[in-house]
Specification:
Strands 4, 5, 6 and 9 form a 4-stranded antiparallel β-sheet that branches. Helix content is 24%, strand content 22%. It is of the alpha+beta class. The chain has 2 domains: 42 residues, no CATH class; 84 residues, no CATH class. InterPro entries: Plug_dom, Plug_dom_sf, TonB-dep_rcpt-like. One of its GO terms (cellular component) is cell outer membrane. One of its GO terms (molecular function) is siderophore uptake transmembrane transporter activity.
């Protein structure tokens, strides 16, 4: 009986140690190629703005954070929605914006309101913009 109790306690301790360990995974991307691969090997330009970077600068909205990426230009779109169109290296409409891994907006568009646009209120809890 004592052996069973000791082994149950030991298993409990081992599992609690395994649970408390943090494991950092390598970054990988699926969207550019259709299969998982390292960001460095992806056949597209991929920029990730980390949570640390978002907190280190006084961004008011997602558009300001994206505008800081080299090679990215924002310009106001037509209409009254207050949205911005994104161009990367002069190419419009082919920019995919992911916030915490979820697709945002329609091809290359970021704005404060409206369907398929990114809300400014989403900025504080974001862990990354890709």
């Amino acid at each position: 009986m004592k052996k069973i109790c000791l082994s149950v306690c030991a298993i409990g301790l081992l599992s609690s140690n395994a649970i408390s360990q943090n494991v950092e995974l390598d970054s990988s991307i699926v969207s550019a190629s259709g299969f998982t691969q390292d960001i460095k090997e992806a056949p597209a330009t991929i920029n990730v703005i980390s949570k640390k970077e978002l907190q280190s600068k006084p961004y008011r909205d997602v558009a300001e954070a994206i505008a800081d990426i080299p090679g990215v230009d924002l310009y106001a779109s037509k209409g009254k929605t207050g949205s911005y169109n994104i161009t990367m290296r002069g190419i419009t409409g082919y920019t995919l914006v992911l916030i915490d891994g979820r697709r945002q907006g329609i091809g290359g568009e970021v704005g404060p309101n409206g369907f398929n646009e990114i809300s400014n209120s989403l900025l504080p809890p974001i862990s990354s913009i890709e």
